[in-house]
Amino acid sequence: MGTWNEFLQNEGTPPEWPYPVKFGEETEIEADVVVLGGGIAGCWAAISAARNGARVVIMDKGDIRRSGSGGPGCDHWCNVPANPHSRVDPDEWANDEMNTLGDFSNGIGIEIQCREDFDTLLEMEQMGGKIRDTNDDFLGVEGRYDDTKFMFSPRYSVDGRLAPAEGWGVPGYNPPEQRKNTVIRVWGTTFKPALKKECLKLGVKVLDRVMATSVLNEGGKQGARVVGATGINVRTGEFVIVKAPTVIISAAGLGFLYTLDTEHGGISTMHSRNECGDATVMAWKAGAKITMMEGSSPSRFSGGLKHKWYTGGADASYENVALVDADNNVLPAPKQSWEDGGVMFSPNAKVIADLREGIKEGKYKLPFFADFAGMKPEEAHATWDLMLSEESTTKVMIDTMEADGFDKYQDQILNYTFIEMQPSQQYRDAGSGGGIMTDWDLMSNVEGLYAAGGSMFSPQDHSYCAATGRYAGRKAAAFAKKTTAGEICRAQVDAEKERCLAPTKNATGMDWKELNFGINRVMQYFASEHKNETLLNMGLEEIDRIEKNAVPQLSATDPHKLMRALEDLCILDSAKIVMNAMKERRTTSMKLRIEREDFPETDPEEEKHYLAQYLKDGELHFERIPIRYWGDLKEQYEAHNQDYTGVYDYGKEE
Amino acid sequence: MSKVYAMPNVATPSTPVKIDPEKCIGCNTCVNTCQIDVFMPNPEKGKPPIILHPDECWYCGCCHLDCPTPGALLFNWPLPLKPRWRRKETGVISQTR
After folding, report:
1. Residue B24 distance to chain A (closest CA, Å)
2. pLDDT of residue A265
3. pLDDT band at residue A160 under the 50/70/90 scheme
4. In terms of CB atoms within 10 Å, which of A34, A129, A184, A205 comes out highest?
5. Nearest-by-Cβ selection for A265 from B14, B81, B89
């Protein structure tokens, strides 16, 4: 027996729901800080707030031991220029990084990461995370320092770019004495369990399997200071109310707006279904300013192993692994190695065009392979047993392949570029880089409402989430100390509870998948590559129709299906947010990857601003905020963090 | 022959992991560690969990990472997702089972 169908076949009856069902019941808790989303940012926020004396509650749809995109692991601690082997000043690196990422990056987050990432990493080690080669498993690997046992990655060893710079691959291009050393290889599978353990040790109240559903404002008024948050248990359906003067949103960004692919490959993208935009939607409904929702990224279709290794099997630019053709000729493609400054193959159109031309001319023979067997053995060992074994979601793949006979010293992995049906990159998938706007304390325009990690606009990677979470926790705890909790508005709670439980009132009706597919189709038709006002208006009208006609039919017969149904409602609101932002951004922009047929002028100077949107009394408002509104990174960081003392005094037994 | 029931189509993929009932100790670590509740505990205590939501699996592997019994829970890549590799010396192509 293994599957539900087998159970039914054997028992003649389906299994009963395994948890007590408590639709309608509620529980109320008080705290100083409530953290919504217990991934990397959320756990760090909870720990740091607790270390700063706050009573903390954290809730997550999963179990915070492994929840979130960083739950399974992390192989690179990026942007850590404050480490002892770094050859670059943290403020300088933050500015470089911001320039590399472009006008619409998030300077506040990057500066926090560059300044505090090394402190955060040392604390990770104190909690039990493995950050150095303490067992000498990787002696002789390039980038390893024998004194500290830190292992550096070639990534971004020249600058922050993903595409290769002039001269890459030429001998002497990136000599050891010039490398910036800003990315440390880590054993990230050890991180999340250690973070949960620390939360519990510090007395954080952990609400596993509770999905955050809303932020509560004083008097139930949009934009008023926060007084708490609500959630619903995804196994029991019990409704949870947390009264608190500060709320940190650290839930994930937006996914599944354009595609939901549950068949043939499971949910085979870079993210789990849990990532469905609830962070942005909760903040938006509470009156917070959100931005960057109109920016598009390449469509994330699943195929081959793309969701596992960046673009995955179709790329095979696994760190330091050369790409070879069918006859074992090494291809002129960067391989995230020291010779090319750690840049990737896939984002470079010229490299791809040259290879394609070479195939046509018979110079390169398909298929291509990632040549583990051609590597120095110690480097193959490091890429396979450190990088790929510790990266989020790849450990299981390593183990499975090894169990079936793969040998990193003798084998080459098939690459799917040019042999798999692969459309040219389409910038369709909007909203995933959008998020909450904050000040230097990571507080939004709503008093007491903070953002961290993937909830911020233009967010970055694992260590960015860790550093900003840790920072937001510290700031929220300080704010909670100097304020008193406001009263919760019962009418707001009742309305939210009714909204959340509505799908349970329909014994039959529309299931969550059909609603998700319906929203996807609207986005695919009306908010695709080519946009104009007519199409976007048609899309918004379609979403209105779905809200009026389909949403009342939404049916959830158990708490799990209720979670998915409520996620659909977040995706629905996200569709509105995204299409309204696209409409309001009246320009074509290469930086935002928007093509407006009715506004063909590309990136005019007057459109260089963040387009923020927010709700006030239920009405949608827009505001244009200058890019780099945060001022000078160094000056502002220092002005806002005079009390920061570095690594927390830790390890003393109470 | 066992009874034939009228059943809807099976969600595909149906079996993202394979659990060895001989090795599984029924501790439900995988049930609790899965981000998205792919599993539910078996109504019979001590028995392997039931795969309830296979179509929501995103192959993060946390169940495999945290399983305390070696070999009890093995990954089962869906047919279209199986990786392939070539032995450099012989040119022989292999694939996960």
Report:
1. 11
2. 66
3. confident
4. A34
5. B81
Domains and CATH numbers, chain B: 17-95 (3.30.70.20)
Residues of B in contact with A400 (CB under 8 A): 74-75, 77, 96
Question: pLDDT for A346-377, tens place per residue?
Answer: 667 788 889 999 999 999 999 999 999 999 99
* Residue A653 pLDDT greater than 90, yes or no: no
What pLDDT score was predicted for residue A312?
A: 40
User: Quick one: average pLDDT of B3-26?
Assistant: 90
A283 with A452: CB under 8 angstroms?
Answer: no
Count, residues in chain B: 97
Rounded to a whole number, what is the distance in Å from the CA of B20 to chain A's nearest CA? Answer: 9
- Which among B41, B56, B77 is the nearest to A267, CB-wise? B56
Q: pTM for the whole thing? A: 0.96
CA distance B21 to chain A (A): 8
Return the beta strands (E) in A128-225 as ranges: 184-185, 205-208, 210-217
The mean predicted confidence, pLDDT, of chain B is: 91
The CATH number given to A312-415 is 3.90.700
Closest-CA residue of chain A to B74: A400
Average pLDDT over residues A576-584: 97
Where does A497-626 sit in CATH, by number?
1.20.58.100
Question: What distance in Å separates the CA atoms of residue A537 and residue B59, rounded to the nearest whole number?
Answer: 37
Identify the residue whose tokens are 């939210």: A496
CA distance A516 to chain B (A): 13
**Nearest residue on chain A to B41, judged by CA atoms?**
A18
Using only the alpha carbons of chain A, give its radius of gyration: 25
- Tell me the pLDDT band of A632, cut-offs 50, 70 and 90: very high
3-state helix, strand, coil in chain A (%, to 5): 35, 15, 50
Residue the block writes with tokens 């002497």: A172
Comparing A312-415 with A497-626, is the CATH topology the same? no
Give the residue from A552, A466, A569, A453 showing the smallest Cα distance to A78: A466
A309 secondary structure, DSSP code: S
Using an 8 Å CB-CB cutoff, list chain A residues near B94: 404-406, 411
Q: A214 Cβ partners below 8 Å, 6+ apart?
A: A229, A230, A282, A285, A286, A496
Dihedral in degrees, nearest 10, Cα atoms A134, A135, A141, A146:
50
Each residue of A162-175: pLDDT tens digit?
Answer: 777 778 878 888 89
Q: The sheet that has B93-95: what strands, in order across it?
A: A323-324, A368-370, A411-415, B84-87, B93-95
Domain spans in chain A, listed from the N-terminal domain onward: 312-415, 497-626
pLDDT in tens, A194-236: 999 999 999 999 999 999 999 999 999 999 999 999 999 999 9
The reply to whether omega before B80 is within 30° of 0 (cis) is no
Say if the Cβ atoms of B47 and A413 lie within 8 Å.
Answer: no
Which two structure tokens, joined as six digits, stand for B75?
Answer: 């990954």
In whole angstroms, give the CA distance from residue A496 to residue A249.
Answer: 18
| B3, closest residue in chain A (CA to CA) | A9
Which sign, positive or negative, has the C-alpha torsion A223, A229, A235, A239?
negative
